[in-house]
Amino acid sequence: MFIGGLQKNSLIDYPGKVSCVLFLSGCNFDCPYCHNPELANSSFPCFLSENNTSENKINENKISENKINDFLERRKGFLDGVVISGGEPTIQKDLVSLCEKIKRMDYPVKLDTNGSRPQVIKKLINRGLVDYVAMDIKTDPYSYSPLIQKDCNADDIISSIRIIMESTIPYEFKTTCIKPLVDINVIKNILNLIKGSMLYALQRFNNTGVLHPEFFRKNNRICNDDEIMYFKSVARQWVKKCIVR
Ligand code: SF4
User: Fold this and answer.
1) Which residues contact 164 (CB under 8 A, 6 or more apart)?
2) 223 CB under 6 A from ligand 1?
3) What is the pLDDT at residue 54?
4) CB 3.0-4.6 Å disulfide test: which of 83, 91, 95, 158 passes with 13?
5) What is the best residue among 2, 21, 30, 88 to mutate for testing ligand 1's pocket, by most ligand atoms within 8 Å of CB?
6) DSSP 142
7) Rounded to the nearest whole angstrom, what is the distance from the C-alpha of residue 31 to the centroid of ligand 1?
8) Is the pTM of this model over 0.85?
9) Residue 163's Cα: distance from chain center in Å?
10) Neighbours of 231 (CB within 10 A)
């Protein structure tokens, strides 16, 4: 298990809960707009912070699971839940046992995932090891290559969407509004896949500390507010709730 960071408190990462966030290192995607390059590229140092400001980063090679266990035991009664984020958590072979340990401590678990490992998501849901799933849909599943991943299997992304929608746990899908990955036709293709879903979040992009800053040297990468509000006006007809964040 490669735990690259721990954010001790968050009011925004787990809807309705005060949570901590475990950041697992390593990712199988290469999103140019990734805001966690230190996690997507796991050779960076780890961090331990009270909040998500980089000033609180502490250099360590890796945060041990024991340290996380101790922290979670001490915070019982103060935290309402644990978010497992990344990087991409589902590529870690010990993710199931990590979730089992956290659930044994009676914490609800939220999983943040890029949806590339449907069988892992299915196992976690079927075993009752996650209570909320937030899945990124980067673009039309057939258009992940080459910008997100060179040989991404669209069927995996679509399977993850179906598994999540067919589950009985709360979930959300989210899309970061960056061109050429996102335009109105892409949004319509995504909506066709998530029709009737509980929550769809359209995310504004913040151009700081990204994985591939060179991608943004070309003009007109960022969808403006008018474009995003237009996406929302279309999306709200297809899903139960659509928000912009
Ligand atoms: S899937 Fe997430 S962690 Fe991985 S590169 Fe993309 S934004 Fe970063």
Assistant:
1) 121, 125, 133, 135, 171, 173
2) no
3) 43
4) 83
5) 88
6) G
7) 6
8) yes
9) 16
10) 24
Amino acid (1-letter code) at residue 8: K
Coil/strand/helix, residue 88: coil
Cβ(86) – ligand 1 distance below 6 Å: yes
Q: Give the position, in ligand 1's atom list, of the atom nearest the Cα of 30.
A: 5
Q: What is the DSSP letter of 76?
A: B
Q: Is the beta carbon of 88 within 6 A of some atom in ligand 1?
A: yes
The residue count of the chain comes to: 245
Q: In what order do the strands lie in the sheet with 47-49?
A: 47-49, 3-10, 19-24, 81-86, 109-113, 132-136, 171-176, 200-203, 242-244
Contact between residue 138 and residue 31 where contact means Cβ atoms under 8 Å apart: yes
Token pair listed for 11:
């009011």
3-state secondary structure of 222: strand
Class of 3-244 per CATH? Answer: alpha beta
CA-CA distance, 93 to 101, in Å (whole number)? 14
